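Batch job 17 of 40 flagged for manual review because the log was empty.
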Amino acid sequence: MGKVRDKKKEAYWRRQLVDHTASGKSVVEFCRRRRIPVHQFYWWKRQLSLRDDQAGAGQVGTEPAFYPVRLPVVSAEPIEVIHPDGCVVRVPPGFDTASLRRVLETLHATPAREA
C-alpha cells in the first residue's frame, strides 16, 4: 500500500493554492513573499490535481475503472486484482464469478480511501 497521507500538510497546500489564486501575483512572487520554494509549490499543485482527479474517477459520468477481462488459460494459481486506490483482491481458482463481480462493483462504488 502507499504512504499514509498527512492531512494537515495537504490542507496547508490547498490553502496556499487558493491564496495564490486570490492574490493575483505570479507564482514566483507569491512563493518569494511566503518563503516557499517554487518547485515545491508546483509539485503540490500537480499532486493535489492528480488526487482530485482520482477522487472524481468514481463519480457518475466517468469511465469505469474496471474493464471486462478474459483469461485464456485456467490456472491453479490465484489471480490478483489491484484497485486504483491500492486495495488488492486475491481471487482463488474456482471462484464464483457473480461474487467477484459484486466485490469489484462495491470497490468501484466506494470513494477512494486515504492511502
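Reviewer: the log was empty due to a logging misconfiguration, but the result itself is present. Helices lie at 7-23, 27-34, 38-56, 97-109. Unflagging and moving on to job 18.
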